[in-house]
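Problem: given the chain below (77 residues), write out its structure.
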Amino acid sequence: MKQKSKILAVMAICIMGMVGLYQVHNAKEKQPLSDLALENINALASGENGNVYCIGRGDIECLGNRVEFRYDGFSLD
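Solution.
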């Protein structure tokens, strides 16, 4: 019985060691995001509203609100 317990303990330690080495190995392989990926993330986060400015209160709908003036800027950036 003691022999079985020792073998199980050694196997458990080996398995935990292998899992630990696997985690360390994966942590080293992570690569930073490319510039293109970061630009895509920023584009998705900024939404589709663009350069829209809503001024005052009135009858024109602007981004879900009623305003007096709506200014839509245009940019080729």
